[in-house]
Amino acid sequence: MITTFLKHEFKAFWRSKNTGKTLTVRIILALLILLLMLYVVAAGFFMALILKKVFPHDSIIFSFCGFVLIYFLGELFSRIQLQELPTLRVQPYLQLPIRRNTIVGYLTFTALFSVFNLWPFLLFWPFIFKQILPLAGGLASFSFIIALIGLSVFNNYLALYIKRKSNLNGWIFLIFTAFLVLLVMCDFKWHLYSIRNISYLFFGNVLKSPALALIPLALGAFMFYFNFSYLKKNLYLEELSTKKDKYKSSTEFPILNSFGPVGDLVANEVKLILRNKRPRSALTMSLLFLFYGLIFYANPGLKGSEGSKVFVGLFMTGFFIINYGQFMFSWQASHFDGLMVSKVSFSDFLKGKYLLFTAASTVAFILTTPYVYFGWRVLLIHFMMYLWNLGVTTNIVLYFANRNGKRIDLSKGASFNWEGVGASQFILSFLLFLPPFIIYLPFKWLGYHDLALAVLGACGLAGILTRSFFIKFLEADFHKHKFSVLEGFRNK
């Protein structure tokens, strides 16, 4: 049955309309991974020299054993960020006489075929055979390898479990990441304990008492069984998220209750962002780019340039609209057909997008108010660009969304993922940044700086006041391109 699953996935890949693009991306990624592997192997062969240089006062074995646990903590964080969930479209198989254990076993075992599981062997094995084997003997070296295998398997399935739970509740990802950061800070910042000493305490004793290697092996086996049981119990995504509670308006976001059906749409999209890695990365990047102004305002060469302040104001208060909005409506591609045949009107759907963009841009503007430290004019420029983003940028983004038929699979990670990216995204980015400067620069060259800002703010305010007109226009425009967009979303 396992070979049947593999054959079906192989056929699904080659019959996909985007096979050529996907294959090209995978070839590029394979080459990059191969290059990285060569660096890892080289680091393994020269690890003794590296450790001696970094820790000149410690023995090589102590330095190595103290480094192992630190490595696996860093690996766990990397897995949560980058490792893909193993996928199989299980619904068709559940209607066939196939045991659930077979389906779940396939999903669980294929999770072992991850490039992350190669790193510890490529990095540590050369050192083990060159240093530990001659000093401690074959049994100690073998036990050390068993301990590494156990920790690698434990990390593998722990990361997958966290990612699966995060798909249902985005707060789990944030809480676990904060826990890892706090764990590291307590060591390297506040010195409450030493991860390095704890690591040596265990792995140093593994060399003396090889039976201790069974502890990480047991942890790995437990996490494997835990994942197997979790998948078997929650084979359907619907089962994972089903709650027996009574219906709550706006899906547990009370602040959106007053917006009715539009608020429900926004709440669902917020959950989509928090539960899926790629849209969540758009939100994370938007928060990180709020510090973008420090690059400009703290730079003496750019501090006096008002044009750069206009760009920074546009960028910081509208980055979420630009970054997340360039893939509109691809985020809903997997269920867009359902939206089109539901009772949700497309005008409410558009109002939900406007409300989401308005809320995100408003929060961004509030968070950038501390830049008033660099002068009240900075805050004025940010406010004018905030109005511009609400009144103009949102309309441009949604206009191009009516022409975007590229599908995005939310189950895939964000790293090295160019799915949904096309020429229209580059054109859109160009058009989002060009118009404000077409308006601003002529007034600036004539010496009317205040008037230039006033015109930008007036254009944004006009767009906000005439939003009902743009909603009707965009709705009519969508129906002209509706079927081409739907056809594009159906192509896998």
UniProtKB/TrEMBL annotation:
<feature type="transmembrane region" description="Helical">
    <location>
        <begin position="310"/>
        <end position="333"/>
    </location>
</feature>
<feature type="transmembrane region" description="Helical">
    <location>
        <begin position="379"/>
        <end position="401"/>
    </location>
</feature>
<keyword id="KW-0472">Membrane</keyword>
<feature type="transmembrane region" description="Helical">
    <location>
        <begin position="103"/>
        <end position="129"/>
    </location>
</feature>
<feature type="transmembrane region" description="Helical">
    <location>
        <begin position="354"/>
        <end position="373"/>
    </location>
</feature>
<feature type="transmembrane region" description="Helical">
    <location>
        <begin position="281"/>
        <end position="298"/>
    </location>
</feature>
<dbReference type="InterPro" id="IPR043742">
    <property type="entry name" value="DUF5687"/>
</dbReference>
<feature type="transmembrane region" description="Helical">
    <location>
        <begin position="135"/>
        <end position="158"/>
    </location>
</feature>
<feature type="transmembrane region" description="Helical">
    <location>
        <begin position="170"/>
        <end position="190"/>
    </location>
</feature>
<protein>
    <submittedName>
        <fullName>DUF5687 family protein</fullName>
    </submittedName>
</protein>
<feature type="transmembrane region" description="Helical">
    <location>
        <begin position="421"/>
        <end position="439"/>
    </location>
</feature>
<feature type="transmembrane region" description="Helical">
    <location>
        <begin position="210"/>
        <end position="228"/>
    </location>
</feature>
<dbReference type="Pfam" id="PF18940">
    <property type="entry name" value="DUF5687"/>
</dbReference>
<keyword id="KW-0812">Transmembrane</keyword>
<feature type="transmembrane region" description="Helical">
    <location>
        <begin position="451"/>
        <end position="470"/>
    </location>
</feature>
<keyword id="KW-1133">Transmembrane helix</keyword>
<feature type="transmembrane region" description="Helical">
    <location>
        <begin position="60"/>
        <end position="82"/>
    </location>
</feature>
<feature type="transmembrane region" description="Helical">
    <location>
        <begin position="23"/>
        <end position="48"/>
    </location>
</feature>
